[in-house]
Amino acid sequence: MRYLVLLVALFSFSSYASWDGSTRGEVVAIEVTAESNYAFRIHLKNAPALCGNANTWAFLNKSDSNYETYVSLLTAAKFAQAEVTVYTNQISNGFCKIGHITVH
């Protein structure tokens, strides 16, 4: 049993350790643009860097898995003024792509 708990803990940590950034804050702005041009963008309160560089916004494209769920969740969090933790990866041009979200 002890080994099972250790194994689960290691896998849980490794899934979060693969992100370039994980930032907690309140969503204060949402931008929407063309579906393949960083379609849905968020900004957090006090404009923290989101993926290990100076970028202060993160995005999803409409073609991303679970896009509608992310958009709904982030929009609801904004209007509820709830904090979220945004896990991001830096893509080749340096922008921050959302990969995981937790609402607090």
What attributes does this structure have?
single chain; 104 residues; alpha+beta; OB fold (Dihydrolipoamide Acetyltransferase, E2P); five-stranded mixed β-barrel; 5 strands; globular; disordered N terminus
Describe this structure as you would to a colleague.
By secondary structure, this protein is α+β, with helices and mostly antiparallel strands. The chain has a single domain (20-103), classed as OB fold (Dihydrolipoamide Acetyltransferase, E2P), CATH 2.40.50.340. 29% of the residues lie in helices and 36% in strands. The protein has helices spanning 2-17, 67-80, and strands at 21-32, 40-44, 57-60, 83-90, 96-103. β1 and β2 (40-44) form a beta hairpin. It is globular and about 35 Å long. Residues 3-14 have low confidence and may be disordered.
Q: Gist?
A:
Helices cover 29% and strands 36% of the residues. By secondary structure, it is an alpha+beta fold. It has a single domain, classed as OB fold (Dihydrolipoamide Acetyltransferase, E2P) (Beta Barrel).
Give the SSE order as H and E letters. HEEEHEE
CATH topology: OB fold (Dihydrolipoamide Acetyltransferase, E2P)
CATH architectural group: Beta Barrel
Strand order of the largest sheet: 1-2-3-5-4
Q: What is the strand tally?
A: 5
